[in-house]
Design brief:
It is a single chain. The chain has 695 residues and is of the alpha/beta class. Helices cover 32% and strands 21% of the residues. α6 packs across α7 and α11 packs across α12. The chain binds ligand 6R9. The site of ligand 6R9 has 22 residues, from α12, β25 and β26.
């Protein structure tokens, strides 16, 4: 079946391409914002110089490694795993799996029987290799000029002190620890300290409400909650400790009393005198942790022991506790980081994600540190004090790899180029994108303006559930297509299936599934293995169902089209909301767009588009028509929006995802069913949208 695999065939034909040939970068010639005649076929090649120095420098090399990885996963991954420290080796098999729910319980195991520790591999190993003096973390505070750094040796000491403290207060292997911290160095330190003693961390993004935090505390019953008193984001101070206080009251009410709240005093945001305090429960980090020894023995854990829980939202209201285990996750995050960003020891790496999300787990903390990388951790907001902050930071630390989300790219794009071009950005060599499909016009701006047409973009498709990158460019190997995540990572076998679960070959679109397990896969939903099977393995028996729609073009490139719940069926045509959005935002006067389906008498569903215009552009009838025209021209008349709804702002979660649920309700005029809008970054945009509905 492998030989007939579509992907393999495509890759084979791609190897005929001249690798890194002659910079066909059509893009360089394009004036920014002007749509290309045919974006689909536009390829952007890495430069010869880039490819020459890359870890994977040609389609042929990718192909060889990929083929090996899927034909002999045990051999491929055990070779890679051997580069890590294992107290004991796996036995008897490298992996075992049952992905087919009709054949029994779904179960993935990698390196079972092996004993290791991810903290030991990420920190101690670097010190022991003689890199103790290398900077592990550059920390950049909210206020420019407020900064700090930790070498690997210093990081090890800090981690050990906290690990010793946690043991002292009774945290043992397998116990849960809830972490509610902003992007201070203490956040990765805390994650690593938990991992060191085999405790299971559950990081809750410090933008979640008390209620959401309480829900997560109640679910995993931690011995300790770790937080800080306050944080400043931009000019706003947020009193995190008060949120924790309410969450802890709520959890007591639900029969989950937490005896200890370790609180870091974040002096730049709030003094301890001003912090509300519960004697007997609350302890200042600075009063206790520094008194503990700077050496702490490692707890060796089984590769299949739990490493962390991370809650993510599903189609129902109850968040799912995605559970990752130690060994496979370690090998997978480290390896994906290395190849997708073409990591070299001299790199300075900055990922703008918060450790409260999977991207921060895998690609702020674990993946980079496992590679001995120097990581920038940024506490603040990317537009504070102004929209040039990111590039200021890039220049300050000479960042070489910059990894962010399309929503940030688009919002900075809207502010104009001057904020970018004011800074040198000469250090940059690889850019990255994650979280949603990146529309070609944002891609082009990122590539041309931010990267000065020099830096390949790794558009990494993956999920909380997958642990690490699944479909991603390897920047030196492949010509890129703006908006495509390109090809699968080693060991990953994507398939596109139809509604009945039949694999479709060639140029097609459908549901994206994954055949076979991979080391970084989640192993269960905490306390609910049944929901794990129902959500992910029952929809298409024999596969892991990603929940995403996807198409594959004639060259075998994968194009993620968004969650399938966001697919609209118009007169029998399936249209990805992302496709329509991408068309809309390619309009020079459109900054952002969100498309939802609404009931339509004749077509089944109609297309309803919320559109944010470029700053200063007024909404007009003429503009409305030209927006519709651009969609007709790029996709087809059937995809033309039925309604353009002018949106000065879009309802987004604090992680930047557009809340389509709310948009669907506004679009269908079900205003009394808007639901909970409190998790929005800015709930006031909803009222604005309602006001403008008939505009
Ligand atoms: C890593 C992360 C997962 C969902 C996923 C998909 C979307 C993420 C993407 C992308 C297109 C990319 N997504 N990366 N879509 N291109 N490069 O974001 O995890 O928060 O669990 O979200 O995000 O829809 O299914 P998570």
């Amino acid at each position: 079946s492998l030989a007939s695999s579509d992907h393999l065939r495509h890759v084979e034909s791609m190897t005929q391409l001249p690798s890194g040939a002659g910079q066909i970068s059509h893009l360089n010639a394009v004036i920014l914002g002007e749509p290309l005649a045919s974006e689909e076929n536009d390829r952007v090649f890495p430069s010869h110089d880039f490819s020459r120095q890359a870890l994977v420098s040609s389609p042929e090399q990718y192909w060889k490694m990929y083929k090996r990885s899927v034909e002999d996963p045990a051999g491929f991954w055990s070779e890679i795993a051997s580069q890590f420290y294992w107290r004991e080796k796996w036995y008897p098999e490298v992996y075992s799996e049952n992905i087919d729910v009709t054949k029994g319980t779904v179960k993935f195991e990698w390196f079972k029987g092996a004993r290791t520790n991810i903290c030991y591999n990420a920190v101690d190993q670097n010190v022991e290799a003689g890199n103790g003096g290398k900077v592990a973390i550059y920390w950049e505070g909210n206020e420019p000029g407020d900064d700090g750094q930790l070498t690997y040796a210093e990081l090890l000491e800090k981690v050990c002190q906290l690990a010793n403290y946690l043991k002292h207060v009774g945290v043992q292997k397998g116990d849960a620890v809830v972490i509610y911290l902003p992007m201070l160095m203490e956040l990765p330190i805390t994650m690593l300290a938990c991992a060191r003693i085999g405790a299971v961390h559950s990081v809750v993004f410090a933008g979640f409400s008390a209620e959401s935090l309480a829900q997560r505390i109640i679910d995993c019953k931690p011995k300790v909650v770790i937080t800080c008193n306050a944080v400043k984001r931009g000019s706003k101070a947020i009193h995190l400790k008060e949120i924790v206080d309410s969450a802890l009251i709520e959890s007591v009410k639900n029969g989950v009393p937490v005896g200890l709240c370790l609180t870091f005093e974040n002096q730049s945001a709030m003094k301890r005198e001003d912090t509300k305090w519960t004697e007997g429960r609350d302890v200042w980090w600075q009063d206790v942790v520094p008194q503990f020894p700077t050496k702490c023995a490692v707890e060796w854990v089984d590769a299949e022991d739990p490493l962390f829980l991370l809650y993510t939202s599903g189609s129902t209201g109850k968040p799912k506790g995605v559970l990752h285990t130690a060994g496979g996750y370690m090998v997978y995050t480290a390896t994906t980081f290395k190849y997708a960003f073409d990591y070299k020891p001299s790199d300075i790496y900055w990922c703008t994600a918060d450790c409260g999300w999977i991207t921060g787990h895998s690609y702020v903390t674990y993946g980079p540190l496992l590679n001995g990388a120097t990581v920038v951790v940024f506490e603040g907001a990317p537009n504070y004090p102004d929209s040039g902050r990111c590039w200021d930071i890039v220049d300050k630390y000479k960042v070489t790899i910059f990894y962010t989300a399309p929503t940030l790219v688009r919002s900075l794009m809207r502010e104009g180029n001057e904020y970018v071009t004011r800074y040198s950005r000469k250090s940059l060599r690889v850019l990255g994108s994650v979280g949603e499909p990146i529309n070609p016009s944002a891609w082009r701006w990122f590539y041309n303006v931010v990267g000065d047409s020099q830096c390949p973009i790794s558009d990494t498709w993956w999920q909380t559930e997958t642990g690490g990158f699944m479909i991603t460019p390897l920047p030196g190997a492949w010509p890129q297509k703006p908006g495509s995540a390109t090809f699968p990572f080693f060991g990953v076998q994507p398939v596109i299936v139809d509604e009945k679960g039949n694999e479709i070959e060639g140029e097609c679109s459908g549901y994206l599934c994954i055949k076979r397990s991979w080391p970084g896969a989640f192993r269960t939903l905490y306390g609910d293995h049944e929901r794990y099977e129902t959500t992910y393995f029952k929809p298409f028996a024999g596969y892991y169902f990603t929940g995403d729609g996807c198409s594959r073009d004639k060259d075998g490139y994968y194009w993620l089209t968004g969650r399938v719940d966001d697919v609209i069926n118009v007169s029998g045509h399936r249209i990805g909301t992302a496709e329509v959005e991408s068309a809309l935002v390619s309009h020079p006067q459109c900054a952002e767009a969100a498309v939802v389906g609404v009931e339509h008498e004749i077509k089944g569903q109609g297309i309803y588009a919320f559109v944010t215009l470029v700053e200063g552009v007024p909404y007009s009838e003429e503009l409305r028509k030209s927006l519709i025209l651009i969609v007709r021209n790029q996709i087809g008349a059937f995809a033309a929006p039925d309604k353009i709804h002018w949106a000065p702002g879009l309802p987004k979660t604090r992680s930047g995802k557009i809340m389509r649920r709310i948009l669907r309700k506004i679009a269908s005029r079900q205003l009394d069913e808007l639901g909970d809008t409190s998790t929005l970054a800015d709930p006031s945009v909803v009222d604005q949208l309602i006001e403008l509905r008939d505009c």
